[in-house]
Amino acid sequence: MTLFLLVVLIAIIGYFIFKLYTHDNTTFYQLTGYSYFDVLMNKSVRTSYQLVKELEHVQGIKKVMVNLQLPVHNEVQTIDALLLHESGIYVVKVKDKSGWINGREQGIEWIELLHKNKKQVFNNPIHETKRLTHVLKDQLPEVDGTFFETLVVFTNGCSFQQVEVQSSNVEVLKMAELKKWAKTLEGKRLSETEIENVYTTLEAFMHGKNTTLHSKTDTPTK
User: Fold this and answer.
1) In this predicted structure, what is the pLDDT of residue 1?
2) What is the pLDDT of residues 51-98, one digit of tens each?
3) CATH number of the domain that residue 172 is part of
4) Which of 32, 177, 153, 149 is nearest to 86 (CA)?
5) Would the CA dihedral through 113, 175, 65, 32 be positive or negative?
6) The NERD domain covers which part of the protein (predicted)?
7) Is residue 12 part of a domain?
8) pTM of the model as a whole
9) Measured between alpha carbons, how far is 85 from 135 in angstroms, rounded to an integer?
10) Structural domain containing residue 124
11) Does residue 156 form part of some domain?
12) How many angstroms separate the Cα of 51 from the Cα of each of 36, 39, 149?
């Protein structure tokens, strides 16, 4: 019995050493500096890690950026993630929810229905993301404005009860649907050089371990 427990302990230690080693080689660690233990212990970091991992499935020329903090009138607005892809620039807003989601693209507020008839009202994430896109465009005046796309990603713990989107440049989906969504991307509007130039322009705004992964606009409405 003692030998069995020792073998199990060694296996567990070996697993964590392996995960630590492989994590240090991930895109997420290179972008943010968050360790494997940060991913395990911090839900926000774990969500961002999952997002980057899913975006890496996108085929074609691309670069991923996370936690961009852009100055706006003496304040800071945070973009959760950017996918710089040959088909366009995708501005990503992450919403961590666990209930039933209801909302319309034109609505001011969306609703999350919870257990025991409780509900949480929150700002329309599409509107939030579009405002962030306008801020981003100011930093990238050389990029055609039609190249920017809105991508709102909800965590997998929620369900969509009624979500209505009309615009062709807006997507609202769950984290688990990103891989399928990635297969729909087509067209080449940005060259590899243009993607590199955009990345270089924005790199100074990307923050890592010592900054929060959530923007001010995540605060629910009263």
Assistant:
1) 66
2) 999 998 899 999 999 999 998 888 889 999 999 999 999 999 999 999
3) 3.40.1350
4) 149
5) positive
6) 43-159
7) no
8) 0.86
9) 19
10) 58-218
11) yes
12) 15, 12, 17
